[in-house]
Design brief:
alpha/beta, six-stranded mixed sheet, four-stranded mixed sheet, 10 helices, 18% strand
Length: 256
């Protein structure tokens, strides 16, 4: 695939943006390739989760390929209905974990904000630099900052374009864990594989209920959770999990 490496490590689909010379900026072809790879992983019953990272140690993704944009016009990396890289507007059913190996800038930061967990190398810098190019982060960056980050911190990022270190994004609750670069992918993979030892259906249901709850008032969210919970309590995974606890053994969930 153009600009993208796709690997399967057991139930984990590892996606690596591979455009080091362009600081892993997404041109139109790589954006389409990333969209197609996620669509395939979502449809594959053997894939439980995806990890997204960048090649090299300088950049995770620096957003839109501005050199290509100068030639053919901006916006060709936006996939209709699914957003930049096929990620920022996509409704997913499977977890997407970011392993931020270097700078996550502009559209790269928007992609990061759309992920479910974020592991970041301690030297990584992140932010929305669009204002420096006469743009603003309309593909999800501003919207997700508004939902996740206090106003003063969010607006400073949006209006100045200055980048923040991974540790500051961790303090703001945007990054899950900060660690040395040489441990990044190993740790992201280990956590993802540990997660996938649990019930995949429970993971998906919990993730979906969280997403729905973000846009609901608490009473409505509790009602939805209660309705889903009644079905979950009688599910095969629930019966297996309870039996495994009672019998003091590891649960054997039927995955996929």
């Amino acid at each position: 695939m153009t600009g993208l490496i796709v690997e399967h490590r057991g139930p984990v689909c590892l996606l690596t943006i591979d455009r080091v010379a362009a600081r892993n900026a997404l041109d139109a072809a790589t954006s389409r390739a990333l969209d197609a790879a996620i669509t395939a992983a979502e449809a594959d019953p053997g894939v439980g989760a995806m990890i997204l990272t960048g090649a090299g140690d300088k950049a995770f993704c620096s957003g839109m390929d501005l050199k290509e944009a100068e030639r053919i016009g901006a916006g060709h990396g936006l996939i209709p209905g699914r957003g930049f890289g096929g990620i920022t507007e996509r409704r997913r059913t499977k977890p997407l974990i970011a392993a931020i190996n270097g700078t996550a800038v502009a559209g790269g930061f928007e992609i990061m904000l759309a992920c479910d967990m974020v592991f970041a190398a301690d030297q990584a810098l992140m932010g929305l630099s669009e204002v420096k190019r006469g743009l603003f982060a309309f593909a999800g960056g501003i919207q997700r900052l508004a939902a996740q980050v206090p106003r003063a911190a969010a607006l400073a990022m949006i209006m100045t374009g200055e980048l923040l270190p991974a540790r500051r994004l961790y303090e703001l609750g945007v990054v899950t864990e900060v660690l040395p670069a040489d441990q990044l992918l190993e740790r992201a993979m280990a956590v993802t594989q540990m997660m996938l030892g649990h019930s995949w259906q429970a993971i998906r249901n919990g993730r979906e209920l969280y997403e729905l709850s973000c846009s609901m008032e608490i009473g409505q969210a509790l009602a939805v959770g209660n309705a889903w919970g009644k079905a979950t309590l009688d599910s095969a995974d629930s019966r297996e999990g309870i039996a495994a606890f009672a019998q003091k053994r590891d649960a054997r969930f039927v995955q996929g």
